[in-house]
Amino acid sequence: MNWITDTLRPRIKNLLSRRETEENLWVKCPQSGQMVFIKELEANHMVVPGSGYHMRMGAAKRLAHTFDNGKYEEIALPEAPLDPLKFRDEKRYADRLKEARTKTGMPDALKIGVGLVGGALTTIAAQDMDFMGGSLGTAAGEAIVKGMMTAVERSTPFIIFTASGGARMQEGILSLMQMPRTTLAIQSLRAARLPYLVVLTNPTTGGVTASYAMLGDIHLAEPGALIGFAGPRVIEQTIREKLPEGFQRSEYLRDHGMVDMVVERHELPAILARLVMILTHAPDMAAPRRVEAQIIPPGVPLPAVS
């Protein structure tokens, strides 16, 4: 019997695993440094009780939090090429995708559901930062278009919760192509006279901000969310000037007309339900016309709506 391998090593492993478990039970608030019990944080919808700091919230929890009674029909997403460019940096892109799918249980960075919001049938998409930083790739672009076309087919408003670091570099130009594709898909919502609401969460940056995230009929944002194209440090280095306090945060954008409302996470379901009710019961919205789910090319006039 070897005392080191048979007795000492298992005890050390047990000690380390216990420490890891204890640390995972607590989360440190990035704003105040407050340590919060993870169960308490989850019960408070990932909002730190003391400071009010809004932590990241996964796509599945977003949908459950927004739909009435947390019930919704999940929409199957179209398949996309796994690794179209056979990209490799420190590791293969295919391996990164596999790790992200194992970690999140999602095929890509987006989840879509259809259910009731304030009693009105609504289609909602939510991006997940835990899946490769919520980056916009071919699969995510296909999912967004699918969500918008589902809203057109079912004559429902469309809501999207954005959370992204921007385009997915491992897919190169194919990732950038999702910006005009999703922008064109929005035209189908407008042709069908269906409301398009955007909820900007922390962070929403890069190509996502430069496309569908800033093209909604109404823009809401969570408190303190970073919203912009390039980061503050890059902008400061480019213009060689000190940026204003709170620059690119949701409150700053609201004060300068880029965001309509900054809403606490607890209040979002009620606010969204109210907006959906108002927009779908306005005189010219009483009976949204069903249109064929199609992308309207740029430069082509929108069809007349009776």
From TrEMBL:
Its EC number is 2.1.3.15. One of its GO terms (cellular component) is acetate CoA-transferase complex. It is an enzyme of class 2 (transferase). The keyword Cell cycle does not apply. GO terms for biological process: fatty acid biosynthetic process; malonyl-CoA biosynthetic process. Keywords: ATP-binding, Cytoplasm, Fatty acid biosynthesis, Fatty acid metabolism, Lipid biosynthesis, Lipid metabolism, Nucleotide-binding, Transferase. It is found in: Cytoplasm. It comes from the Bacteria. It holds the Pfam family Carboxyl_trans. NCBIfam families: accD. Component of the acetyl coenzyme A carboxylase (ACC) complex. Biotin carboxylase (BC) catalyzes the carboxylation of biotin on its carrier protein (BCCP) and then the CO(2) group is transferred by the transcarboxylase to acetyl-CoA to form malonyl-CoA. Acetyl-CoA carboxylase is a heterohexamer composed of biotin carboxyl carrier protein (AccB), biotin carboxylase (AccC) and two subunits each of ACCase subunit alpha (AccA) and ACCase subunit beta (AccD). This is Acetyl-coenzyme A carboxylase carboxyl transferase subunit beta. It comes from Candidatus Raskinella chloraquaticus. The gene is accD.
